[in-house]
Specification:
Layout: H1 2-11, E1 31-34, E2 51-53, E3 61-63, E4 69-73, E5 82-88, E6 96-97, H2 99-111, E7 115-120, H3 127-143, H4 145-148, E8 150-160, H5 162-172, E9 195-198, E10 223-228, H6 235-247, E11 252-257, H7 276-288
Parallel strand pairs: 5-7, 5-8, 8-9, 9-10, 10-11
Antiparallel strand pairs: 1-4, 2-3, 3-6, 4-7
Helix pairs in contact: 3-5
Length: 290
């Protein structure tokens, strides 16, 4: 059942995990928002049709993404603006792991009382285009905060693996857009108010120095950081980011588990990392005032 629904969500036809807590409250179809106005997509390199590949591991993989979007998964209306998070699935900047690092995560956020926006950023092999998409999307969510009933001052970001790298890039390099502004949404801040960085990739250079283009400062948002020690070679990315955040006096909560590997999302694997959603929920309550 989950595999079929996840496939439908990837195609944009049904609200899979993007839902409120109760089935009766589920929307028939999630809203999908195009990030860029027609003809204004920067760093566009291809018009190839988007591809989706379901697999035996129940992961929907998207590639040839050339029309970036936000899939809107709103939490239950409580009568006041909800906190929100933009989710960046991983996939090595080659594919997007759409369900287990996207729609399933959005469903979890909704159950915490947090609205979610799943970013379908451009892949493959176009990191700067993906960065443009993420910066643009953060400003776009803020510009439509009233429409979505979300709090523009409690808008965070979450990323897995390559999506973790993208989330860190947005969290550290937000003072200027990487593209020429296209409308009033680009006048709003693209800085996340908080960040959840899950088994990130590509963050470190030699030793525990941060990779180029990730300027950690005191303005970098409070961060929840998750890593398994046996996640080779990416464990050093998390350690480097933790050290940089501490040096900049940015509030950071890091959980380093002995096992868990890479790419598990929120799925139970019988590893020590299985408990991380509980830890993340407690952190969100403190940071977002849930």
């Amino acid at each position: 059942m989950r595999s079929w629904l996840s496939m439908m969500a990837a195609l944009g036809f049904a609200a899979v995990e993007c839902a409120s807590i109760h089935a009766s409250e589920r929307a028939a179809e999630p809203e999908v928002v195009r990030i860029w106005p027609e003809g204004r997509i920067p760093l566009k390199t291809s018009d190839a049709p988007e591809k989706m590949t379901p697999s035996k591991d129940d992961i929907i993989r998207l590639t040839d993404v050339n029309e970036p979007t936000l899939t809107v998964c709103l939490a239950k209306d409580t009568g006041k603006p909800n906190p929100a998070v933009m989710i960046c699935p991983g996939g090595g900047y080659n594919i997007l792991a759409w369900n287990h690092e996207g729609t399933e995560i959005a469903d979890w956020f909704n159950r915490q009382g947090v609205s979610a926006f799943i970013l379908k950023y451009r892949v493959p092999k176009n990191r700067d285009a993906a960065f443009c998409d993420a910066q643009r999307a953060m400003g776009l969510i803020r510009s439509r905060a009233q429409h979505f009933n979300v709090d523009p001052k409690r808008l965070g970001i979450m990323g897995f693996s390559a999506g973790g790298h993208l989330s860190v890039r947005v969290s550290t390099d937000f003072k200027k857009r990487f593209y020429e502004p296209v409308d009033e949404a680009d006048a709003l801040s693209c800085r996340p108010d908080f960040a959840l960085i899950i088994y990130p990739a590509y963050l470190h250079a030699e030793g525990y120095a941060m990779a180029e283009g990730l300027p950690v400062t005191e303005q970098t948002p409070p961060t929840f950081l998750l890593q398994a020690e046996d996640d080779k070679p990416y464990v050093d990315s998390s350690l480097a980011y933790f050290i940089a955040l501490k040096a900049a006096k940015v509030p950071v909560e890091m959980h380093l588990f002995p096992d868990g590997g890479h790419g598990y999302g929120m799925r139970i694997k019988g590893k020590s990392t299985d408990v991380w959603p509980t830890l993340a929920a407690a952190w969100l309550k403190r940071v977002c005032g849930l």
